[in-house]
Amino acid sequence: MTQNHLSGMEASAVSVLKRAVELDQSERFQESLICYQEGIQLLMDVLKAVKDDSKRGHYREKIKGYMDRAEQIKVHVNQMKEDGKYHEQIRISEDATGYSYEVLFKPYISSALTEVWVEDPYIRHTHQLYNFLRFCEMLLKAPCKVNKIHLLTSQDEADSGQQSGALAELKESLSAHGVTLDLQYSSTIHDREIRFDNGWIIKIGRGLDYFKRPKGRFSVGYCDYDLRQCQETTVDIFHTKHTKTL
Q: pTM of the prediction?
């Protein structure tokens, strides 16, 4: 391994672990735990490549410190979940980037996830329907085995069939991937909530529709939602052992 490659690996580890500490200090524990785990793995890869004994000792000490903190967070989070007191809040600022569905939901997706409930009154217009499609695609690619997605939304009375047609097409497409889409409408729905059957509940102030319109079809962020600017909103995350049932 070249020195440049090793330096690059070390820089990546430092960057990820710095983010872990920032999230930790902001009490965004579930996200910080993911970053600690990724950063520790990067440092371990660096350790394997380093030959100098003094440097190896330095890296071992750093790894132990981060592993101890990650274990403390894991115990704390598990206790909060056990007590039904887990609550985490993420504030997305105006024009912020880096909040794609993959990034936002990753810490709460596990192999135990099989069923998802989405309650959002605004899955009606074209861009909102695309948002829901992207959310479904994210679940299909994630390390879980989702086989059923429930959507409760409001019906667009002025719609000429676009909403119903789009959701019918999505239902058929999901079915081909082994996922059932259960669709229901409500004229009184107002709150927005996404619930996973592994116990996580994510409430986004703006629902799935927190992205700004891109400046043009060939503007950065049009395709990659990590680069898409966001509207200001708050995300509240809870955990419960009593998951929603049909």
A: 0.77
Phi-psi map region of 191: left, alpha, beta (phi>0 left; psi -120 to 50 alpha): beta
29-49 and 3-25 helices, crossing angle to 10°: 160
For residue 178, the 8-state DSSP code is T
Q: Which two tokens stand for residue 50?
A: 């380093």
Whole-number Cα distances in Å, 62 to 14, 24, 40, 59:
11, 17, 9, 5
DSSP β-ladder status, 200-204 and 233-239: antiparallel
Cα separation of 140 and 46, whole Å? 33
Q: Which helix (H) or strand (E) holds 14?
A: helix 3-25
At 205 the three-state DSSP class reads coil
Q: Are strands 180-185 and 148-153 parallel, antiparallel or unpaired?
A: parallel
Tell me how far CA of residue 104 lies from CA of 24, 138, 190, in angstroms. Answer: 16, 11, 22
pLDDT in tens, 77-97: 888 887 878 888 999 999 999
Helix (H, G, I), strand (E, B) or coil at 206: coil
Determine the distance from the C-alpha atom of residue 7 to the mean position of all C-alpha atoms in its chain, rounded to a whole number: 29
Per-residue pLDDT tens digits for 145-204: 999 999 999 998 777 688 999 999 999 999 999 999 999 999 999 999 999 999 999 999
Per the document, the length of the chain is 246
